[in-house]
Amino acid sequence: MRTICDVCESAVAVLFCAADEAALCRPCDEKVHMCNKLASRHVRVGLADPNKLVRCDICESSPAFFYCDIDGTSLCLSCDMAVHVGGKRTHGRYLLLRQRVEEINQGIWTM
Known about the structure:
Elements: E1 15-17, E2 22-24, H1 26-33, E3 44-46, E4 66-68, E5 73-75, H2 77-83, E6 93-95, H3 98-105
Antiparallel strand pairs: 1-2, 1-3, 4-5, 4-6
């Protein structure tokens, strides 16, 4: 199953922007993220085989971006914000995509 670009809704998405929570094809990524300096800093990751993506342990549908070492759960952005309120903000949470982000920074997704 292929993911369709959230912007043009016609092309196959090749990357995901966590800040925008959007899957994008290459042309739409260039339009959206090269239009201003702040948007160009968004971390985008290549879309992997959907069967290999880690899913959120709470909603079980969105890609997980964080791991909470106290709760032992993988969480998407929305569920992380809902679960870690108040005192739970002290839980140590880590980006699940660290390795992939480093690969992008080394030039795989050079823009």
